[in-house]
Amino acid sequence: MSEGRDVLARRCLGRSGLEVTTLGLGGAGIGGKAYGAVSDDDAIATVRQAVQMGVTYIDTSPLYGESERRIGLALDGGLREHIILSTKTGTHPRWRGEYSATATYKSIENSLRLLKTDYIDLALIHDPPDLQQAFGSQGALEALEDLKAQGVIHAIGLGVRDHALLRTAILSQRMDAILTYLDYNLVRTTATPLLDMARAYDVGVINGSPLVMGFLSGRDPVAHVRTSLPWIDEEACEELGIAKHLWNWSQKAQVDLQAVALQFSLRQDKIATTLVGAMSPTEVAHNVAACRRQLPVAIWEELERARVK
Predict the structure, then answer these.
(1) CA–CA separation, 107 vs 149, rounded Å?
(2) Please, are residues 116 and 76 in contact by the beta-carbon 8 Å criterion?
(3) What is the pLDDT of residues 163-191, one digit of tens each?
(4) Cα-based distances in Å from 145 to 3, 36, 87, 262
(5) pTM score, whole prediction
(6) Domain ranges, ordered by start, for the chain
């Protein structure tokens, strides 16, 4: 048997110098907007459970409903100093789609207030359609560089799915980190060239959505879609078909697909940290356990054979 991944291990987030645990807490779920209602008490308990279990990296965004406010409440009283905290700009509901310096200053100021902190470890430009405004004169990047010089933020990054934009960000040599999502997991590894480029330019990589919207959570992905994501067209969704194939494989191999999916990302040393969301302390504990679960050494070779079929 192989040892499960040590989720409390830390890696450096590229040139930022920030050390993050290889498992991070994604803040969308506790916002109560993306995946269903969550109370303040449950959200606070979820964050504190993650901290108690040794997770030191937490990511959030103004887009995620009540997430920033709840994380601020959870970390208030002494926990903040032990956490690497990232939030985003460009997707605040009040200034959504605005990537100007003015909107960025306002968004970061609002995030600082909600998070109950006077600094943000990493600020990410979030989901821009292009980089013309964000990287241009009086754009978001100029504002973030100014805030970094002031010590208000410690590192700057870009979080977007478009690989062309991420490549431009890396090549600009003005980014400390990138956040890629849905593109490095058991279903798809199209982000691999980005990982190589980021390593070459000393840009840290954060990997989001390793469970592909829950398709790889360990339950039948078709049942998951029908109960939790009914708007997805089962016939047209290629990812669902691949996930179903992998779930069938995991059942025959008698392994936990969630554990395999999470450890697949953690095994990639070009990824500094992998973000996994949670809506309760129980889910946090389950995620940590999946990362630590012992898997047979041979499972990775078996997985590769299963993935190419």
Answers:
(1) 18
(2) yes
(3) 999 999 999 999 999 999 999 999 999 99
(4) 42, 36, 15, 33
(5) 0.95
(6) 10-307
